[in-house]
Structures are given as C-alpha cells and as structure tokens.
Design goal:
about 200 residues, alpha/beta
C-alpha cells in the first residue's frame, strides 16, 4: 500500500518513516510530487491544518495521505506560537531564529511559569473521502539556554524534567518514544493497520 506524507519537510519525513518502518507500506512524500503546489495552512487549529493538507494531498494524488500539523505551546505566552510555530519568527527564519525569539520573550519568566508542550495532530485521508484525526502531546518546560545537537525546530530549548534533557539531547530513538509526533503516530498506525487489512 502506498501512503503519501503531506509534507516536504525532510526532518518530519525521516521521523515518520522511522516510526512506520515495520509496516507493509511504501512511503512517499510531497517531495516525490514536485508539481503539486504548496498547500497553504489557512486553519486556526492543528486539526484544521492537518485535515486540509491531508485532503488536498489525497485529491492531488489519489493516494491515502498522512498529514501532520504540530507546534509548540508556551503557557506564559498564552499558547503561542501554536499553529504559527513555523512562521513565528518570520517567513525565512532559521531554527535558531525561532527558538531565540522564544528565549527573548521568556527572558524574565521564572522557572515555575515556563511550562510548555509540543502538540501534534495527524490527519489520515483516503480516496473515498474518509478522514481520521489523532493527537499526541509531550509536556516540558522552556529552558533558559539551548542544549543539544539533535532534532530540529524548538527541540534545543524544550526541556523534559523527567529525563533531565532537552529534546535536542535525545537520540532519535528516545525522541520517537516520548515525542508528540511519536504518540500521534502510534495512534495513526492503528488507523493505517485497519486500512491495510480492509
């Protein structure tokens, strides 16, 4: 069975492929379909964005599509950057620019108010018009300084107290076990398994 990931983000593709490696599926991504234009994320929630990306990708390819919309929610910033995580520091911001913006906004926030979470919503759409949405989240706090070389995005400033590490200090295997995307994908796997068996 072919499944297309509704993203061109190579880091996301790598993470999702690792988590689906043992399934009897061929995984493609939007990078395999260069003629498909970028899908605008016009939704105001992770669910809306994931759903519109999945549906547009299925419509364009005729394949089962898996789309994810994810981001960082910081309680002291009233849930920002949320769905705007990717563009919070401007349209062409680097990962470093993104997490530096959060650190700047949080510089006077005390430790006990630095709580945050990574949230991921995944939508699976099928050519017959079915859409299934699943969620995952990972709780943590915003560190005062970046640490670690792994991961991407806000990982270097997302500290997990139980592990005494930032997300960027985890191995890919450790991250996949506890991450928001890992948890959402665990739920998505059950949906995909049913589609494989049907």
């Amino acid at each position: 069975m072919d499944i297309i990931l509704a993203t061109k983000n190579a880091n996301k593709v790598k993470e999702i492929m690792a988590l689906l490696a043992d399934m009897p599926v061929t995984i493609l991504s939007l990078a395999d379909f260069p003629d498909i234009p970028d899908i605008e994320e016009t939704g105001t929630t992770f669910e809306e964005n994931a759903s519109l990306k999945a549906i547009a990708t299925t419509d364009a390819t005729g394949l089962i599509a898996l789309a994810d919309d994810s981001g960082l929610e910081v309680d002291a910033l009233e849930g920002q950057p949320g769905v705007y995580s990717n563009r919070f520091a401007g349209p062409n911001a680097s990962d470093r620019d993104k997490y530096r913006r959060i650190l700047d906004l949080m510089k006077d926030v005390p430790d006990e108010k630095r709580t945050a979470r990574f949230r991921a919503t995944m939508a699976i759409s099928t050519p017959d018009g079915t859409i299934v949405v699943v969620d995952g989240k990972c709780e943590g706090v915003i560190a005062h300084e970046p640490r670690g070389e792994n991961g991407f995005g806000y990982d270097p400033i997302f500290y997990i107290p139980d592990l005494d590490k930032t997300m960027a200090e985890l191995t890919p295997e450790e991250k996949n076990r506890i991450s928001h995307r890992g948890k959402a994908l665990k739920a998505a796997r059950k949906v995909l398994q049913k589609l494989i068996e049907s």
